[in-house]
Amino acid sequence: MNQLDILLPFSLPPAPMARDLLRQCKAPALAMLLARGTAAAAPRAFDPFSRALPHEHWLSERFGLPRLAQDSSPAAAAALMRALGHAPAAGLWFVLHPAHIHVARDHLVLTDIGQLQLDHAQSQRLFAAAQPLFTEIGHELVYGDASTWFFRADDWVGLRTSTPSAASGRNVDIWMPEGPGELAWRKLQNEVQMQWFADAMNEEREMQGMKAVNSLWIWGGADAAQAAFKTPYAASLGMRGWMQAFAAQTDAADQAAATALPAGQLAELLSLKGERLLLLDQLIEAALAEEWGLWLQSMETLDREWLAPLLQALRDGQLDAIGLVLTGSEQLLHLQTTRGSLRKFWLKPSLSTLSA
Known about the structure:
Layout lengths: L2 E6 L6 H10 L3 H9 L1 E2 L4 E2 L8 H9 L14 H7 L8 E8 L1 E3 L4 E3 L9 H17 L4 E5 L2 E5 L11 H4 L4 H4 L6 H16 L2 H8 L7 E9 L11 E3 L3 H7 L18 H6 L4 E4 L4 H5 L3 H25 L4 E7 L3 E8 L18
Parallel strand pairs: 1-11, 1-12, 10-11
Antiparallel strand pairs: 2-13, 3-13, 4-8, 4-9, 5-6, 7-8, 12-13
């Protein structure tokens, strides 16, 4: 079947403000796809304290990504290491992100790591300062890129960790690691924080209006021997970061490059055959920051640049069906719209499904 699934993280706004937001939102293509679509799966509700966001859960399930422990973040470290040019032969590896944690009224809050603006030179400087602390206690530390490092901790099997997106903007105590290695990690994290506190680089960053890099976030524990993942998709597009890494390492023989796809490349997207997945993640940053004016702008841009031409492609027969996977912070809806269902003219376009 020539089907395109579109994953739209944070397209379901928080219930208290959903009606007001949707009243202002001008997204006619999305309204048409929602009104003429039918449920492809039962709606799902997630624990508000889950260690991954709904779209992260859905993606990891679709790609058969295992977990290091029950109620833990997806086991992404090994795939992400390979994507960044490393090939761990053995051991249990975790993802590390340099991070900014700030003090709220009575707790500590993790800032969205995507806002850190850490360049290669600064990251290398922080890595060099932290590495001896890891080596001293027998943990190998590996540099991936400016925002992503890795370290080995073979005896931490069962440690439950949280994705940085799940913890962003929230009290970090609730999403801190729990289980084997928990105390050792807290001690190591504290030592790194003290080491970086004395580095003049953070003062320089703050003078330039950037956030200090004052902590590390751990997640994604995975065995180096982890096998290739399985997926129903012939191509996965628009993927970024760890999602791009594991999508690129599936065992689908004709797996297309799992890359971020600019809006101008719709022709390339439509030229592919079979089941495809398109991730449109432009709403995440605004939702995590609770910038709802920016969320509205991003939603309308997505509708104009992506959903409207894809709806037209469905009408023209270039696609047989469009699946919409809509998520919020605690819920997920999966709808499917076919070319035939577009003929249900008595169903008026509406965004009301987003507030259900």
